[in-house]
Task: structure prediction
Amino acid sequence: MELLNIQEAVARFVHDGDSVALEGFTHLIPFAAAHEILRQGRKDLTLIRMTPDLIYDQMIGMGVARRLIFSWGGNPGVGSLHRLRDAVEKSWPQPLEIVEHSHAAMASAYEAGAAGLPCAIFRGYQGSDLPSVNPQIKFIACPFTGEKLACIPALRPDVAFIHAQKADREGNVLIEGIVGVQKEAALAAQRAVVTVEEMVDDFGPRSSNTVILPSWSIDAVVLAPGGARPSYAHGYYARDNAFYIAWDEIARDRDTFKTWMEENVLREKVRQ
Amino acid sequence: MELLNIQEAVARFVHDGDSVALEGFTHLIPFAAAHEILRQGRKDLTLIRMTPDLIYDQMIGMGVARRLIFSWGGNPGVGSLHRLRDAVEKSWPQPLEIVEHSHAAMASAYEAGAAGLPCAIFRGYQGSDLPSVNPQIKFIACPFTGEKLACIPALRPDVAFIHAQKADREGNVLIEGIVGVQKEAALAAQRAVVTVEEMVDDFGPRSSNTVILPSWSIDAVVLAPGGARPSYAHGYYARDNAFYIAWDEIARDRDTFKTWMEENVLREKVRQ
Amino acid sequence: MSYSSQEMMTVAAARALSNSDVCFVGIGMPSAACNLARLTHAPRIKLIYESGTLQTRPDVLPLSIGDGELSDTALTTVPVPEVFRYWLQGGRITVGFLGGAQVDRFGNLNSTVIGNYDRPKVRLPGSGGATEIATQCGQIFLVMKQGPRSFVRELDFLTSLGHGRTGRERQRLGIRTKGPTLLVTDLCIMRPDAETNEMTVNSIHPGVTREQVRANTAWEVRFAEAVQETPPPTASELEVLRDLHARTARAHGAAVGES
Amino acid sequence: MSYSSQEMMTVAAARALSNSDVCFVGIGMPSAACNLARLTHAPRIKLIYESGTLQTRPDVLPLSIGDGELSDTALTTVPVPEVFRYWLQGGRITVGFLGGAQVDRFGNLNSTVIGNYDRPKVRLPGSGGATEIATQCGQIFLVMKQGPRSFVRELDFLTSLGHGRTGRERQRLGIRTKGPTLLVTDLCIMRPDAETNEMTVNSIHPGVTREQVRANTAWEVRFAEAVQETPPPTASELEVLRDLHARTARAHGAAVGES
Result:
């Protein structure tokens, strides 16, 4: 584990063509990391996320992705992800290959990745058309009961970014609240970077079973207060629901989107 | 979920011939439940436990088991489980069929049971003789990589007993410290009974990610303070290491063992 | 007391829930219906959101499936793989709420694409949890606004299994859960026919005609022998629902989560 | 300073550990060696017990793998399925310590039975975590008292794979971890031969003769070209080790966990 800034972490760990998971199930979405990947101009990425959310709508709209592995691509409680739709429906700004799963499948595939397995089995996709459009969905028979179970490849991203509340001075990371698939994504990845709200000397008194990623299970910690905005960080700030609603208008039009990204994401580079 | 006493819970939920898991990985071993099963004279049980420990040494020595599914059968830090050995080596007091696994296998099999799956896959048993003596260990090929993975049946006990720190007035159960496979065992079982140190009105302020079994996921809660002795309950009492050492002498001899059980376990019935 | 068709739909869905239900809740109308049930006749209902919040009691409706409010008021919050593996696949959920862009007469759902999968006219969000919710909850309540483009003869894509394209698919696949037992719309309530599993109108909301129901269904919709009139929302149901929406609007700083 | 052969063994095992190790620790001698390393030259070593305690720093040696002390002093404690799936099988452990009732010249272990499996002379505890520890840790350190009945020509049962019955089994099975790279006994230190993987004496403890090593090994034990004398325990190593044992004895109320 190394303590890096976000520029260093992205420069060091994200390469053109990588498969990248920026996870965070509604909570703790690592926007700061995504924005730095955009500023550094990475391309040809395979993006992996259960819920692409605004974070991948932005990345897809900026043309960094050639492939998306996902299970639910909407703006939660609001509607469509217009940039994702534009890419799939009209190949703008470039064609986007999609590998589509259900949530249960993605969650099991991250779990299998964290567990070092090549594949995950679960009872899934029964009666659904999804297996007919995703060749990565296969079925195997239980050798004891004969039951047909779904089997999909484990997710093993080249690099995962997650956001967490705290790191201590050793670089251990504490996550609390809706923990989603963040721990699994970090453990499943070849390289894992955690952006955090806060660095503390010591986590202090806590439950024995607190969700902690030890320093030796991740590659870098980056101090990034507010790094999950406009999503939220339990104990730090609330979800900016108004922005999620406003995004519908911003992203609906290609030019409005590009202008917004230029002004609010890409120009950040100059300031630093 | 019902609130029962231990006599009612055993009478209601444990039948002759059942497969029974009394779990607790070193911590929170449900001795009070085991002793009541002995007092009620159940027989022909299939006992399931990763570490049979003193709890199953007692049950096996008293002749209630015809079958044992396990992965490590020693007295931790002390030596042999003499009653288990006597049953396997000399069929005393009756023959004991054994189904033997590794810890990784048992843990994955409980996980699969909790997840409602018929089997578990993992990377295991490579190069070991165990598959040659346990026909429940099979191997399947990953359909994506061809890798050979171990596959074993999920554990789905007829009934599981676990011990926990607290239940609230709704019958939700809180477990803290070394949580072992207790949650998985309870969720994998057809019927689950939890003995607890303490009943509280409400768990009060706590971490969002506290290990809690909701009332609707278990069948009964039993108030049984000290119910894990001579093992321990984090926050309540320490492990009685001296008793674990003393057990070596008690259990070494058939008559000494029977006398001890008679005096310390079976006679409890009279007192109540 | 006057009410909207959206309110009628939410109330009708809420009434189908009971104190003994453990409910897998989606965002939007299902969330409103489940919380309305919890705040009225079913205070002991257990609500689970796929973000891992078990037995949660939000004071306001969440905008997303993973709002902080859900975790703050939950009995506990577990990882997402655990929610799908131990709780949903483990068979512990009695009712799942689903909707989609299209439904057919057997309660199958499309939430994936309009048009061809590889060249979609409209790319929809996709399955999310729906595909396994549809087969692993004890029963499924469908809630959707009715219209001829959403209540279709044939789905463009079958995302989540209802009773299958023949009405008999669940049995053939060895699925032991019941599938769609209820379809609540803004016009009526349908239930599967005991013989064919075709979703059949059992109850029509006050002021709605059979013609309206027919005009808003692309298949030849069947009516049960005895069709009831849905009891209108009571004053107290409406009051609780409107309070919930008012609190939600204040909390989110915008008029969201309508119904 | 005089010392026992048990102390020599513990110290020799401890020295093989470094600050960069993440160690899967068993009870007894491995626990003493790992904690001795942590309290002397390797303060940043990470110790994991199979009860789920990650990065634990016990003040006294645990009697069992799941003593409260381990959880109280751990960074965090995870469920047992997670320890075996995410942490061991996930490939995050650099060193595993193993021992058994029998070891053969290729470092394979028997902790299952003496005699026939179905009619055992002595039923041993069994695998526990050992079978997968043996193949999934980066490397394995074996620690066992040497004797002709435990250092055998042929195992009665192969519980945990070393280099296999031919010395080449790991490669054949596609296993990428190193297996036994070190065997520490009360008499000597062995390492696998670079060509054959046969465990070969590299270092003999002070005061021990080659004859003693031969007499306590049932196979024809090989010696490396240059055999060292193991440096004896230093005064500070012994002091820390004895303090640890004294604290442990006081805490457990009995003289357990020796060396």
In short: The longest helix of chain B spans residues 254-266. Chain B touches chain A at residues 115-119, 121-123, 136, 138, 140, 142-145, 147, 149, 151, 153, 176-179, 206-211, 234 (CB under 8 Å). Residues 78 and 245 of chain B are 6 Å apart (CA to CA). The mean pLDDT of chain B is 97.
